[in-house]
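Single Protein Entry

Contents — chain, fold
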Amino acid sequence: MSALSELSKLKVSRPTDLRAKRAARRDNKGAIIFLAPWLLGLLIITIGPMFASFYLSFTDYNLLQNPNWVGLENYIRMLSDSRLHQSLRVTFTYVIVGVPLQLAVALLIAVVLNRGMRGLAFYRSVFYLPSLLGGSVAVAILWRQIFGMDGLVNQLLALVGIEGIGWISNPDTALGTIILLHVWTFGSPMIIFLAGLRQIPTMYYEAAAVDGATRFQQFWRITLPMLTPIIFFNVVLQTIGAFQSFTQAFIVSGGTGGPSDSTLFYTMYLYNKGFKEFDMGYASAMAWLLVVIVGALTAANFIASKYWVHYDD
């Protein structure tokens, strides 16, 4: 009797299971159809070119003839390429100086805005606007005009009797003008900092105020430790973005690398090698070197985060 009851249960449940499986298959097909454009883009625009560039990095390729396999020759050339070494120095200086300054300004503005003020949405939009425009050609051209010999900066200096210089044509100041442009585009990390500040419970500040802590002590002992995950997030993103900077330096320096290669960014030198000198094999090798550098620095940031990033747990 028990065997018959079990058999009847199986007969009843089997059609239900089949219907569930069919519905799951239909859902999976629908998901695949909707994901198909993104998957095709990933394969054709990202993964495909990555494998192609990795192969080309071991070849001599000028975009017009078939690639010629040369093994590690492109990577060995990097060891004696003085302009590549200069581009690495310029790029690392840009990252090491520009990223901390940008994040410091972004955090300062976020703290001020977090205190609450009328028209907060307006100010937030105004401060975020440079991040939208900072990488554009128009802003880079404007920056070149501002720091030119007859630009706004020298005109302001002339009002107080100071003779200006060619800020962009001077190798001592050319990179500084581009770093200043990078710092000016602090809007994106500022918005992230502001969101993080809004998540810090006010009870911590109230308890600290009762204990007699000053505003600086509250900022140092409460705000910064609670914001370390946000700071870490911004550091990683802005560091990767800074290594990829191209438009600002290319437009400001006219695509030449500036005086004495003082603004020869790594990406600019890579572009010149690939699309001006048609040395695409060497440019592909440079691209993979950049991937290794960015990957190594990102990994180092994650390892170091264990010692200074504080989470709720």
